[in-house]
UniProtKB/TrEMBL annotation:
PANTHER family listed in its UniProt record: 23S RRNA (GUANOSINE-2'-O-)-METHYLTRANSFERASE RLMB (PTHR46429)
GO BP annotation list: methylation; RNA processing
InterPro entries hit by this protein: Alpha/beta_knot_MTases (IPR029028), rRNA_MeTrfase_TrmH (IPR004441), SpoU_MeTrfase (IPR001537), tRNA_m1G_MTases_N (IPR029026)
Protein name: RNA methyltransferase
GO cellular component, one term: cytosol
Domain of life: Bacteria
Domain called tRNA/rRNA methyltransferase SpoU type: residue spans: 25-167
Molecular-function GO terms, alphabetical: RNA binding; RNA methyltransferase activity
Cross-referenced Gene3D superfamilies: 3.40.1280.10
Keyword terms: Methyltransferase, Transferase
Length: 176
C-alpha cells in the first residue's frame, strides 16, 4: 500500500468547491478565543462541505496568520461571516427555519450517538468558548443540545476536536 500524491487526490478547485451543493449544516462559533481553533474549524468545514461558518463576538476573523496556519487556505473556500452577537444570530436563523443545536453538557442533552437529524432540515451547530462553552442564553434558546459522550477524566474536548466529531457524525447520518 502506498500513500496517494496530492494530484491523485483529485480535489476540487476553490471555485468548483464554492459551486457545489453543501451539507445542510452551518457552524456558529460563540466567542472562540483561539485563532488556531478557528482555523481548524475552517479546515474541517472545508473537508466536510459545511454550508457556512458564523464567527460571533470576540471570535477572530480572517485574514490572520494564526487562522491561516491551521486553515491552510480553507478561509478562501468556506463561506463565513462575522456577527456581533450569537443570540441575535440564533434568533435570526431560527426564523429562517434552522434547527439550532448547541454542543454542550447540559440538563436533558441528547447524547451524540442518539441524535437523528431530520431529512431535508437545515441545522446550525453552536460551539462555544474554550473556557465557558456556549452562552447559557443560547443554550436555553436551542432546539437541541448535543453532548459528546466522554469516558476519561477531563470534562471537555478542544473545540476543534469537538467540531470534527459532531460534523462527521452529522455527515455520516445524513448521507446514509
Amino acid at each position: 500500500m502506498r500513500k496517494l500524491s496530492m494530484d491523485e487526490l483529485n480535489r476540487d478547485s476553490v471555485e468548483d468547491f464554492k459551486n457545489k451543493k453543501k451539507l445542510p449544516l452551518t457552524l456558529i462559533l460563540d466567542n472562540v478565543r483561539s485563532l488556531n481553533n478557528v482555523g481548524s474549524v475552517f479546515r474541517t468545514a472545508d473537508a466536510f462541505m459545511v454550508e457556512k461558518i458564523y464567527l460571533c463576538g470576540i471570535t477572530g476573523t480572517p485574514p490572520h496568520r494564526d487562522i491561516e496556519k491551521t486553515a491552510l487556505g480553507a478561509t478562501e473556500s468556506v463561506q463565513w461571516e462575522h456577527v456581533p452577537g450569537t443570540l441575535d444570530l440564533v434568533k435570526q436563523l431560527q426564523a429562517q427555519g434552522y434547527n439550532i443545536v448547541s454542543v454542550e453538557q447540559a440538563e436533558n442533552s441528547i447524547m451524540l450517538h442518539e441524535f437523528v437529524p431530520e431529512p431535508e432540515q437545515q441545522y446550525a451547530f453552536v460551539l462555544g468558548n474554550e473556557v465557558f462553552g456556549v452562552e447559557q442564553e443560547v443554550v436555553s434558546l436551542s432546539d437541541v443540545v448535543l453532548e459528546i459522550p466522554q469516558f476519561g477524566t477531563k470534562h471537555s474536548l478542544n473545540i476543534s476536536v469537538a467540531t470534527g466529531v459532531v460534523v462527521w457524525d452529522f455527515l455520516s447520518k445524513v448521507i446514509r
